[in-house]
Specification:
Structural class: alpha+beta
Radius of gyration: 62 Å
Strand content: 25-35%
CATH architecture of one domain: 3-Layer(aba) Sandwich
Organism: Myotis lucifugus (Little brown bat)
Pfam families: Ig_TRAPPC9-Trs120_1st, Ig_TRAPPC9-Trs120_3rd, Ig_TRAPPC9-Trs120_4th, TPR_TRAPPC9-Trs120, TRAPPC9-Trs120
Distance between the termini: 183 Å
Family: Belongs to the NIBP family.
Protein name: Trafficking protein particle complex subunit 9
Oligomer: single chain
Keywords: Golgi apparatus
Strand order of the largest sheet: 2-3-1-4-5-6
Largest sheet: 6 strands, mixed
C-alpha cells in the first residue's frame, strides 16, 4: 500500500468502506450534489438488533489499497455506488457495460453495488431492478437516501454471513493463510502442515474475525477475538499481524470506540451508542483492570448477543484503559517499523494515536508520535502528496495545541506548492496556505492588533513570512495585495527593521505603488477573507495633536445678553454631581473656543520621523466629521530621525455646527493612509471637538504711522495684532489716519471703537486719543473689498512742571517785573542738576528730569460684526497698539503771581525752560512770541483776568456721586486748571522742525496760585462820579467836589458785614516814597470813613462820599477796611479793594 489515508482515525476500523464514483461524463456539481446526500446516510441500526453499522464513503480510492483488505477489513471496498447520466435508451447498454467494468476494479472484495441513472425515462426505466435506480433528473430524486439504506442492509447481510462463516470454522478444518501483498512470495514453499504454520493461520484468521465482528457492531466479540489473536500471534512471532490489526492496533481501536463514543476524528455529532448500557460503561473507562482476561470463545453466540450479564463485565475487562491504549499503540508502531513495506500502516497508526492523545489532552506524547511520523520513509512521493502530508501534519499539530509547529509545516506545504520541480507552480495555493500560518506565528492581518501592548511572537520569523506573502501575491498577479502586505510589514515591524532593511522595504513599496497605489479600501479575497486597510501611522509618528484657536484678531466673541450667556444651561446649585458625571466626557473632548465658517482653521501636530533617511509626506490633511470641511493638504519633508517636529494642518469649515477632528490622512511611499486619532497609541490630545459658528466679516487695518518694533503686553492678556509708534514732543498733536478694509466675504455692518491707555506713572491732561466715529460709520455697511477711513487725534499733554511739589512758596525769587512789559529783560541758561540725581537712577526716573523721554502706550480696540454671525450675536475684536515716545518740549520751572492795577486781574509769572535741542518760540493768547534757545530759561509774564471758580459745578460728572472728598477736590482743581489753561492758550513752536504744540499749566498751578487767580467772594467796586475806576486814572477839576461810591457785591454763600471803610489819599513819588500828609491838598466833604450794612448772599450794598482836591496833580486813594471782629472772621484775600488813581486838573475858566 503506497497511498496513506491521513484522515484515518481509530473508529474507522468499525466502518464499511463504500466507494461512490461517476460513470461516464458527469458534471462535478451534479456528482457532489448526490454524493453529499449519500454521505448523509453514515450509520443505520440493524433490524431486530442493538447493533449499528457505520459507513465510510470515498469518491476516490486507490485499487492497490484494496489489496490490504485481508490485513484490515476496513480498508476493503465492500460497496460501490456509481452515478451516471443517460439521456436516451440507445446509450443505456454502453452505460451499463461501463458500470460492470467499474465493478471489476474492486470485484474481488465487493459485497454489493448500485447504479444511479439520471435522465433516462421510458420502458427501460420502468423495469424493476435491484442494482439500478432510475431518476428523471438530479433535482427530482427523492428516494436516494432510502435506496442507500437498502443498499447498506444488503451489505450487512453479506458481512454477517461472512462473520458467521469465519466464526464457525472448526479447529480441525484447514484454515487459509491470510497475508498482505508483499508476503505472498515469502510463503512459497513453506510447510503448511507444521504447527507453527497452523498457529499463524489461526492467529491471523482470529484477527480477521475480530475485524468482521467490529464492523458488524459486535464490540464484545471483537475484543475477545483480538485477545485470542494476540496470544496466538505472539507465540509464533508474527510481528506484522501482531502489531497491526491483529492484536494491538485492532485492540486499541476497539477500546477507543468503547471509551470515546463521540469519535476521535473530529466529526460532527457523537456516534450512536452500541447498546443501551454503553453510556454507563463509558463512565468506567478510566478504571484500571486486567487487560488480557480472555472470555471463553464458546460463550459467544452466533448473533453476538449473550443473555448472560457476565458478558458485559467481560467486555469491560477485555477493553484497554486510556493509558494502555497509547502503550499498545507504541508497541504496534514499533512492530510496524520492522517492515519496510508497512510504512503507510505505521504512518496511519501514528495519526490515529495522535487523535486519541488529542482527546486525552496529552500533547507532549502526541508530539512524539507526530515526530515519528515525520521521519517515516515512504516511497518517492509526488509533490501533491508531499503537500497533503505536510498539511495533515500541520492540522494534527494544531489539534494538540502546537500552533507554531503547525504553522511551520503549513508553511513547508506552501513552499512545496511552488517547488522548482513543479512545471506550473501553484502560487494561489501557496498564498492560501501562507495565510493559514499567520495565527501560529502570532500574526494577524489587522494592524489594530499591533497598536497596543507589547509585541507578540518572533519578529524575525514574522518578517520572513510577510516577505513571502508579498512575493506570493506578486507572483499571483495581484499588486494590490503586495502593496497591502508590504505596508503591513512596514507598519507593524518598523521597530525590528534595521536601517538597511528600512531602505529596502520602502524602495520595494515605492516600486509596487508606482503601478498600483495603496488605498484604504477593504480587500476581499476569493475565499471570503478580508484584508483590512493599513494606515501608516508610524510614517511619521504623531505624538501630540492640538486644535489651535483662531488668531486674536479673528476670534469670535459672544455679545453679552441681559441675562448672561447660557443661563438656561447652568445649574442653580454650586456643585451638581449629575452634571459633573454626565458631561465629564463631553467636556474633556470639546474645546472652549470656536471656529468660524469660511475662515482658515489650524491643527498642530508634533511628528517624528523614525526612518534613517529623509521622509517625504505628501497630501497630508485633516479628517473631520460633523460639518462640511475643506481640507487644504500640505506636503512636508522631515529630516532623518528628526525628533519632534511641529506640523500645522489647515482647512476651512464650509458649514456651521459641531466639527470633530478624527485624524489625518497622508500619502507616504505611494500609500494613502487615513490615520484616526483613536487608533494612535500614546498620543496627547487637548480635545477634538469644536463649535463652528456662522461666518463673520474680516477687518484689516492699516495706518499712516510706521510699525513699532516694540510689542505691547496688556495686563489683561489681550493680544494686539498691529503695533505702530510715533515720536512727539510734549504738548504736540498729530493725526493718525486708519484705513478699515473689509477683506472677508461678509458685509461689515457694525463697528465700535474704544481706547485704553495702559498703566502709566505719567499723568495725562486732556484727551489723549479722540476721534469722530460718525464719519466712518457714514460709509457703512462696508461691503467686501471696500475701505473706510477713521481719523484719530493723538494729543500728548504731560506734566510741564520741572519737578513735582517744587513750587510750594510763591515768594519773590529776586526776579522782579516792573511796569507792564510782557517779559522781563532777565535771561538765564539752566543746566540739568546732575548732582541732584541718584548715581544709578532707575528706569522711569523723576518726571521733572528734563532729559527724560517718556513712553505712552495705548490700545485702540475695534469691535465689529456683520453677516450671519452678527445675527447669532457674535462679533470680532481687533486691537491696534499705539506707542508714543514723548520728548520734553518746555518746562515751567517756577510760577508766581503779581497783582495788576485792577483787582479783577493779575500777572502770572512763568519761568520757562527750553529742554529741546532746537530754538523754540513761545506765545500766549494775545501776547508776543518769546524766543528761547536750546537749554535757555526765561521768565514770561502774562496778564490774566481772574476767574470765578465758584460758578463751576461741585461734582463734575456722574462719577462725583461716588467719589471721596479728596477725589472731588482733585476734580475741582483739575477743572480750574483746565479753565485757566484754555484762557492762557500758551503754545510753542519749533521753526526748524515745523512742529507746534501746546504748553499746559494744568499741572504747574498749586493751591496758592489758584487762590491768587480766583476772584474774591466779595466784589468791591469803586466808582468816581458814577464811573468805575479800576485801571484808568479818573480826571477831576481842582475845586470841584468828586463823588466817591464804594459798592460791595456778596458772592459768597454767607451773610457778611457790617464793615467800616477808611479812604486814605497819598501820592507816589515813583522812587518808593509815598506821601500821606495831604491835609492841605485833599479835603473830604463829610467823613473820611464809610459804613456798609450787612450784605446777604448774592446781595449788594453801597456807601457814598465826596472829596475836594485843592491842587493839581496825581493822587491815589487807598480804601482800607477797619480790622474789627467782623472783618477778622474772613480771609484777607476777600478784601482786595482797588486803588483809585485820580488826576486833578486845573479848572476851566
Amino acid at each position: 500500500m503506497s497511498v496513506p489515508d491521513y484522515m484515518q482515525c481509530a473508529e474507522d476500523h468499525q466502518t464499511l468502506l463504500v466507494v461512490v464514483q461517476p460513470v461516464g461524463v458527469v458534471s462535478e456539481e451534479n456528482f457532489f450534489r448526490i454524493y453529499k446526500r449519500i454521505c448523509s446516510v453514515s450509520q443505520i441500526s440493524v433490524r431486530d438488533s442493538q447493533r449499528v453499522l457505520y459507513i465510510r464513503y470515498r469518491h476516490h480510492y486507490p485499487p492497490e489499497n484494496n489489496e490490504w483488505g485481508d490485513f484490515q477489513t476496513h480498508r476493503k471496498v465492500v460497496g460501490l455506488v456509481t452515478i451516471t447520466d443517460c439521456c436516451s435508451a440507445k446509450d443505456w447498454p454502453q452505460t451499463f457495460e461501463k458500470f460492470h467494468m467499474q465493478k471489476e476494479i474492486y470485484g474481488s472484495t465487493l459485497y454489493d453495488s448500485r447504479l444511479f441513472v439520471f435522465g433516462l425515462q421510458g420502458e427501460i426505466a420502468e423495469q424493476p431492478r435491484t442494482d439500478v435506480a432510475f431518476y428523471p433528473s438530479y433535482e427530482a430524486c427523492p428516494g436516494v437516501e432510502k435506496r442507500i439504506e437498502d443498499f447498506i442492509e444488503s451489505l450487512f447481510i453479506v458481512l454477517e454471513s461472512k462473520r458467521l462463516d469465519r466464526a464457525t470454522d472448526k479447529s480441525g478444518d484447514k484454515v487459509p493463510l491470510l497475508c498482505v501483498p508483499f508476503e505472498k512470495k515469502d510463503f512459497v514453499g513453506l510447510d503448511t502442515d507444521s504447527r507453527h504454520y497452523k498457529k499463524r493461520c489461526q492467529g491471523r484468521m482470529r484477527k480477521h474475525v475480530g475485524d468482521l465482528c467490529l464492523q458488524a457492531g459486535m464490540l464484545q466479540d471483537s475484543l475477545v477475538h483480538y485477545h485470542m489473536a494476540v496470544e496466538l500471534l505472539r507465540a509464533v512471532n508474527d510481528f506484522l499481524w501482531l502489531g497491526g490489526p491483529a492484536a494491538l492496533e485492532g485492540l486499541c481501536s476497539a477500546s477507543v470506540i468503547y471509551h470515546y463514543p463521540g469519535g476521535t476524528g473530529g466529526k460532527n455529532g457523537a456516534r450512536r451508542c452500541q447498546g443501551g448500557s454503553l453510556p454507563a460503561e463509558a463512565t468506567n473507562r478510566h478504571r484500571p483492570g486486567a487487560q488480557e482476561v480472555l472470555i471463553d470463545p464458546g460463550a459467544l453466540t452466533t448473533n453476538g448477543i449473550n443473555p448472560d450479564t457476565s458478558a458485559e463485565i467481560g467486555r469491560a475487562k477485555n477493553c484497554l484503559s486510556p493509558e494502555d491504549i497509547i502503550e499498545k499503540y507504541k508497541e504496534a508502531i514499533s512492530y510496524y517499523g520492522k517492515y519496510k513495506n508497512a510504512g503507510v500502516i505505521e504512518l496511519e497508526a501514528c495519526v490515529k494515536a495522535v487523535r486519541v492523545l488529542a482527546i486525552q489532552k496529552r500533547s507532549m506524547e502526541a508530539s512524539e508520535f507526530l515526530q515519528n511520523a515525520v521521519y517515516i520513509n515512504l516511497r518517492q512521493l509526488s509533490e501533491e502528496e508531499k503537500i497533503q502530508r505536510y498539511s495533515v501534519l500541520s492540522e494534527l499539530y494544531e489539534l494538540i495545541g502546537f500552533r507554531r509547529k503547525s504553522a511551520f509545516f503549513k508553511r513547508v506545504a506552501a513552499m512545496q506548492c511552488v517547488a522548482p520541480s513543479i512545471a506550473e507552480p501553484g502560487w494561489r495555493a501557496c498564498y492560501k496556505l501562507l495565510l493559514e500560518t499567520l495565527p501560529g506565528y502570532s500574526l494577524s492581518l489587522d494592524p489594530q492588533d499591533f497598536s497596543k501592548g507589547t509585541h507578540r511572537g518572533w519578529a524575525a520569523v514574522q518578517m520572513r513570512l510577510l516577505h513571502e506573502l508579498v512575493y506570493a501575491s506578486r507572483r499571483m498577479g495581484n499588486p494590490a495585495l503586495s502593496v497591502r502586505h508590504l505596508s503591513f510589514l512596514l507598519q507593524t515591524m518598523l521597530d525590528f527593521l534595521s536601517d538597511q532593511e528600512k531602505k529596502d522595504v520602502t524602495q520595494s513599496l515605492e516600486s509596487y505603488t508606482s503601478k498600483c497605489p495603496g488605498t484604504m479600501e477593504l480587500i476581499t479575497l476569493p475565499d471570503g477573507l478580508s484584508l483590512p486597510p493599513v494606515p501608516l501611522t508610524k510614517l511619521p509618528i504623531v505624538r501630540h495633536v492640538k486644535l489651535l484657536n483662531l488668531p486674536a484678531s479673528l476670534r469670535p466673541q459672544k455679545m453679552k445678553s441681559l441675562l448672561g450667556q447660557n443661563v438656561s444651561a447652568k445649574s442653580p446649585f454650586i456643585y451638581s454631581p449629575i452634571i459633573a458625571h454626565s458631561r465629564g466626557e463631553e467636556r474633556s473632548k470639546k474645546i472652549d473656543f470656536q471656529w468660524v465658517q469660511g475662515d482658515v482653521c489650524e491643527v498642530q501636530l508634533m511628528v517624528y520621523n523614525p526612518m534613517p533617511f529623509e521622509l517625504r509626506v505628501e497630501n497630508m490633511g485633516l479628517l473631520t466629521s460633523g460639518v462640511e470641511f475643506e481640507s487644504l493638504p500640505a506636503a512636508l519633508s522631515l529630516p532623518a530621525e528628526s525628533g519632534l517636529y511641529p506640523v500645522t494642518l489647515v482647512g476651512v469649515p464650509q458649514t456651521t455646527g459641531t466639527i470633530s477632528v478624527n485624524g489625518y490622512h497622508t500619502t507616504v511611499f505611494g500609500v494613502f493612509s487615513d490615520c484616526l486619532l483613536d487608533n494612535l497609541p500614546g498620543i496627547k490630545n487637548n480635545g477634538s471637538t469644536v463649535e463652528v459658528i456662522p461666518a463673520l466679516p474680516r477687518l484689516q487695518i492699516s495706518t499712516s504711522l510706521p510699525r513699532s518694533a516694540h510689542s505691547l503686553q496688556p495686563a489683561s492678556g489681550d493680544e494686539v495684532s498691529t503695533h505702530v509708534s510715533v515720536q512727539l514732543f510734549n504738548g504736540e498733536t498729530q493725526q493718525l489716519v486708519i484705513k478699515l478694509e473689509n477683506i472677508g466675504v461678509e458685509p461689515l455692518e457694525k463697528l465700535e471703537v474704544t481706547s485704553k491707555v495702559l498703566t502709566s506713572k505719567e499723568k495725562l491732561y486732556g484727551d489723549f486719543l479722540s476721534w469722530k466715529l460718525e464719519e466712518a460709520l457714514a460709509q457703512f455697511p462696508l461691503q467686501p473689498g471696500q475701505v473706510a477711513t477713521l481719523t484719530v487725534n493723538i494729543q500728548v499733554k504731560l506734566d510741564f512742571s520741572c519737578q513735582e511739589n517744587l513750587l510750594q512758596d510763591l515768594s519773590d525769587d529776586g526776579i522782579s517785573v516792573s511796569g507792564f512789559p510782557l517779559c522781563s529783560p532777565f535771561r538765564q541758561v539752566v543746566r540739568p542738576r546732575v548732582e541732584s540725581k541718584a548715581s544709578n537712577p532707575p528706569e522711569g526716573s523723576k518726571p521733572g528730569d528734563p532729559s527724560h523721554t517718556k513712553v505712552l502706550e495705548a490700545i485702540l480696540n475695534f469691535k465689529y460684526s456683520g453677516g450671519p454671525g452678527h445675527v447669532e450675536g457674535y462679533y470680532r475684536d481687533l486691537s491696534l497698539g499705539l506707542r508714543v515716545e514723548v520728548e520734553p518740549s518746555v518746562f515751567f520751572t517756577r510760577v508766581s503771581t503779581l497783582p495788576a492795577t485792577s483787582t479783577r486781574q493779575c500777572h502770572l509769572l512763568l519761568d520757562v525752560f527750553n529742554s529741546t535741542e532746537h530754538e523754540l518760540s513761545l506765545s500766549a493768547r494775545g501776547n508776543e512770541e518769546l524766543i528761547l534757545h536750546a537749554g535757555e530759561c526765561q521768565r514770561m509774564a502774562i496778564q490774566v483776568d481772574k476767574f470765578n471758580f465758584e460758578s463751576f459745578p461741585e461734582s463734575p460728572g456722574e462719577k462725583g456721586q461716588f467719589a471721596s472728598p479728596k477725589q472731588l477736590e482733585e476734580q475741582r482743581q483739575e477743572a480750574r486748571g483746565l479753565e485757566i489753561n484754555s484762557k492762557l492758550g500758551i503754545r510753542w513752536r519749533i521753526p526748524s522742525l515745523k512742529r507746534t504744540g501746546e504748553a499746559s499749566v494744568e499741572g504747574v498751578l498749586n493751591q496758592l496760585a489758584l487762590e491768587h487767580l480766583q476772584l474774591a467772594p466779595l466784589q468791591w467796586d469803586v466808582l468816581v462820579d458814577g464811573q468805575p475806576c479800576d485801571c484808568e486814572a479818573a480826571a477831576c477839576q481842582v475845586g470841584d467836589p468828586m463823588r466817591l461810591e464804594v459798592r460791595l457785591t456778596n458772592r459768597s454763600p454767607r451773610s457778611v458785614g457790617p464793615f467800616a471803610l477808611t479812604v486814605v489819599p497819598f501820592q507816589d513819588h515813583q522812587n518808593g516814597v509815598h506821601n500821606y500828609d495831604l491835609h492841605s491838598a485833599v479835603s473830604f466833604v463829610g467823613s473820611s470813613t464809610f459804613y456798609l450794612d450787612a450784605v446777604q448772599p448774592a446781595g449788594q450794598s453801597a456807601c457814598l462820599g465826596a472829596l475836594l482836591f485843592l491842587y493839581t496833580g496825581d493822587f491815589f486813594l487807598h480804601v482800607r477796611v477797619h480790622e474789627d471782629s467782623t472783618s477778622k472772621e474772613l480771609p484777607p484775600s476777600w478784601f482786595c479793594l482797588p486803588s483809585v488813581h485820580v488826576r486833578a486838573l486845573e479848572g476851566q475858566a
